[in-house]
Amino acid sequence: MSQDPLRIGIIGAGIAGRRHAEAFARHPRAAIAAVAEIDEAAGRRFAQQFGARHFHDYRDMLDAGVDAVVICVPHILHLPCATAAAAARAHILMEKPIANTLEDAQAVLDAVERAGTTLMMGYVHRFRPEVSEARRLIIDGQVGRVATALDRFVSGSMADTPGWVWNKAQAGGGVLMYGGVHPIDRLRWLLGDEVVEVFARTSTYGNPTEVEDGVVALLTFASGAAGALYENAPGYGRLGEWTTEVFGTVGALLITTGAALEYRGATRHERWAYEDDGRFDRQAAEFIAAIAERRPPAVTGTDGLRGLEVVLAIYRSAASGRPERVGS
Prior knowledge:
Elements: E1 6-11, H1 15-26, E2 30-36, H2 40-50, E3 53-55, H3 58-64, E4 68-71, H4 78-87, E5 91-95, H5 102-115, E6 119-122, H6 129-139, E7 146-154, H7 168-171, H8 175-191, E8 195-203, E9 214-221, E10 226-232, E11 243-248, E12 251-256, E13 260-265, E14 269-273, H9 279-293, H10 301-320, E15 324-325
Parallel strand pairs: 1-2, 1-4, 2-3, 4-5, 5-6, 7-10
Antiparallel strand pairs: 7-11, 8-9, 8-15, 9-10, 11-12, 12-13, 13-14
Helix pairs in contact: 1-9, 4-5, 5-10, 6-8, 8-10
């Protein structure tokens, strides 16, 4: 990688695309070179803000030349955008989830492997300080052997999210595909463990939509630890906070996302408050460093595939009414 700024192309000028662009624009080794957005007015506003070129079609943007792209479009478009970017030898930061199906996810991985480029998944919550500190405490043995974990995630309603999020053909599902993939990745990462079986129920209760806005799932990890997901996106708005609990043989953790981390063990009880919200900046820095150092990023495409396997197993269990093996 040269000392010139990494030329970043943003595919999709929505909320996520803007957050990524703002983070890369603050990095001294990156520059927002282009944006691909089919909404002409939105694309031109975005381009003007970041001093970038606007393209109606992402393929034209890739032909014009960028070093890396951030893919922030409906999930059904992740595969064609990723394969085109890989063919253009552009590195990829992919918004979650990696795809709607395992076949598409594997095709993304295969395209990047053939190109020899970097693929990093946008599981940005790994870069929150309260989450990374919780992982450090677990790795340091402050929790001991993890026995149980719980994630309670509350997402926005239809009024707070793009319409395609609630379209099964475009998004692949509802709250689980759009927001619940984050808790799944957080639990996998915090525990350093893979989910091997799920037993789940989904419901549609607060939005006039064909996909789920409520999920309750029991997760069994390879180590024998038990996890639970309680994920909701009610149409009448949010209630409560996003919290994650981890209980082990010698200690327990309570993460209040964006606010605090609490630890309790046999001999001490501590609580740390957090106001920092630089997760997109830290994610952008890791992406740039991985490219420069020619190493795998902290969050790989395989992480995206493993998380999607859990999501699809939850959907199968909700449909069958039985426990389902992950990846089968």
